[in-house]
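>> received
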Amino acid sequence: MKKLFLFAFSLFFSVSLICQKKQVLHFYVEAGELQRINTPVYVNMEGITTSDSLSFRLFEKINGQMEEKSFQIEPGYVSQLWLILDGTTEPGSKREFFLFSNEPEPVENIITSTFTGDNIILKKENSEILHYQASVLYPPEGVDTVFKRSGFIHPLISPSGNVLTRIWAPDHYHHFGIWNPWTKAKIDDHVTDFWNLFSKQGTVKFAGINSIINGPVYGGFSIKQDHIDFQGADPEKLALNEVWDVRAWNTDPVPGLDAYIVDLTTFLSVAGSSPVIMEAYRYGGGIGFRATEEWTKDNSTVLTSEGKTRVNADGTRSRWTDINGSFENKGNSGIVFFSHPANREHPEPMRVWPENSNGRGDVYFEFTPIRLKEWQLHPGNLYRLKYRMMVYDGKIDKTTAERLWNDFAFPPIVTISQD
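>> returned
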């Protein structure tokens, strides 16, 4: 009887505390026709002037009781509240949430980004996810310094510590982990190659940090990159402005599998007063991935959303592509690249190296939105390409990849209550 009284008192006390606060937002999250597992969800906070996460507390109503949830507010033209729809939410089901005003309280940042001066290091707790190269990195001694570069991701690291990316490959010194320069960009009266650095026509440079974000739901960074044209009237003319938004989510996307989810969104705009035409070519833009030297045709696989493999994937389109390989005495790791339906030419054409590449069957993959059709970029417009990567240890199947793509492409439905 005493225990029952204490439980009732505790429940009354916690509910009383909630009731003392002002209800700011009441909303529902619906799974729709899809099963959801630990899915990132956002809620627009239009009309709510305070955008500091510490000013609120979020609760989910479960079986008549209030359970507190982690969340994070992203400021913007319209601020967004982000949360992880934790656990499994079955198709057709709906979950109820309440946001209350609150006195500031400390928040534990699970996903963090740290700028070292040379790199931005993205972590989940103590595990490194990736490094973004901010300072100019020079090639090995004896290699032409024309191959110096900044503005790329390397290393990209699996949860167990396997490095998935590669730079300074002797066969392609201009490959840089995960990166996305354009190959044939028509600027005024000439065509500039920002990809093949040995052509000495152009390059891409890190140009500054917009923001560094740490938080309980997501963390990451926003940076600027300049596409520099060496062939114009000016020796180093800015041709394209680019912004990368990189963020990792504090979620377990596949229960029982160690994995990270990282989003890379790029925004492009023309720096000059004339259009820039990205000519159709098998390489260029999108998102490119030069895989670890440990992967060859003998210990790696490629599978696309359309069932293509490394044998026949090149030049075809896909919504997602899974690339997996083994490491000596370290098991398997992989990365799934997801293309968003709003991207140009989605499902996107791909460049996938054949099995005989470099003799060993080295692994290279790219979503290439200009592979089949040129792209005209006009001054005054902003162009977006949105990608998601799941970096994992072990192996996944097609059903899992499809579920994750659906989460990315068609997130749960949020309905704001008017009470």
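>> Residues 1-17 have pLDDT under 50 and may be disordered.
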